[in-house]
């Protein structure tokens, strides 16, 4: 980081297929968690969401504070939670 002033700025205008000049809505893990809890009545961990996204080949957030060694052994997501997360991803049109 520096306290220097910027030499210049670049102005960028993005146009989308539908012609609307707005930023597309970004689907967050908390939105997926809220959808699953509202529809199915149970909570899902963010690690389960990331696991399902990896299984489907979707991009996931690369955490800068990711630990090298886990404190506890990893348990894969239960089947009913995987199906609920897939339903949420379909609802948000990610798959």
| Largest sheet, strands/sense/barrel | none
Order of helices and strands: HHH
> How would the global form be characterised?
extended
Helix content: 25-40%
Mean pLDDT comes to: 82
Structural class: mainly alpha
- Estimate what percentage of residues fall within beta strands: under 5%
Strands, count: 0
**Which regions contain 5 or more consecutive residues with pLDDT less than 50?**
none
End-to-end span in angstroms? Answer: 39 Å
Can you count the helices?
3
- As a whole number of angstroms, the C-alpha radius of gyration is 18 Å
What does this entry look like structurally?
It is a single chain. This protein is an all-alpha fold. Helices cover 37% and strands 0% of the residues. The chain has 3 helices and no strands. 12% of the residues are buried. The mean pLDDT is 82.
Quick rundown:
With 95 residues, the protein is mostly helical. It is built from three helices and no strands. The longest helix has 13 residues, at 79-91.
Topology readout:
Blueprint: H1 29-40, H2 46-55, H3 79-91
Helix pairs in contact: 1-3
Features:
mainly alpha; 37% helix; 0% strand
């Amino acid at each position: 980081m520096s306290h220097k002033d910027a030499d210049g700025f670049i102005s960028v205008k993005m146009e989308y297929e539908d012609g609307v000049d707005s930023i597309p809505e970004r689907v967050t893990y908390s939105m997926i968690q809220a959808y699953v809890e509202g529809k199915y009545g149970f909570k899902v961990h963010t690690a389960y969401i990331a696991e399902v996204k990896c299984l489907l080949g979707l991009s996931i957030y690369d955490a800068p504070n990711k630990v090298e060694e886990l404190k506890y052994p990893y348990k894969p997501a239960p089947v009913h939670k995987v199906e609920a997360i897939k339903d949420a991803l379909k609802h948000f049109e990610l798959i």
